[in-house]
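Worked Example 4.2. Consider the chain below.
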Amino acid sequence: MGVVVLLRSMAALGQVVSLTPIIRQIPTDDADARFAGQSPPESESYVTPGIPFYVELWAGNTGKPFDGLACVTVDLSYDRTDIIDAVPPVQNSPLFPIGAVSAVFDDSAGTVGDIGGCQVVPADPTLGVDEWVLVERIEMDALMGGGVVTISLQDADNLFAQTNLIGSLFPVDPADIDFQERVFSVGQPGVPAASEWSLVVMGLLQLIGGTIVLARRPTAHSRSGDRT
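Applying the procedure from the previous section yields the following structure tokens:
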């Protein structure tokens, strides 16, 4: 029993793994699935309504000991089910092609559970060290504009699919994982969505129609002149 506790504490000691969602209008090419440095790839600040976009899961080992990522699994959630939908199935990264479990889509709750995967064997012992790596992507439908969306990540809490480092007997403690979130807009901020444009056009047409009616209506002076 004492040996088990020691191994678990060593696996979690000083370990920091960072996981972040990245928003893409066009998905990252598989050839660019590794991104060097401590900062993750750039994320879109807004997506276009009516056009599919992608939420990508990226991971990096940003703390000591610097061991490669063997497996990554998280739960993903989004707070605006009225303006975006998740489209199954998930799309695996070539770096983590093995899925221990199947992702669970619940669009009414705004969740996609158990997303991620594992490396093939033999694994790359440096994968994710001093870099960010693409784990998986989810296609999303942008139903309508005019809203701000928050994408969050949480521990999968699944005994059969967790986040593991190469050479560790136990999964990374969730307390040592930096679960990040991402905020973006559906529709460019400050630019009316298509539905809002239609209201603007209707208002202009009504204004123009009212102006024409007023212009054609005879004035009191013209009516008195007709009687003389």
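The chain has two domains: 2-186, 194-227. The first helix runs from residue 2 to 12. Compare this with Example 4.1 before moving on.
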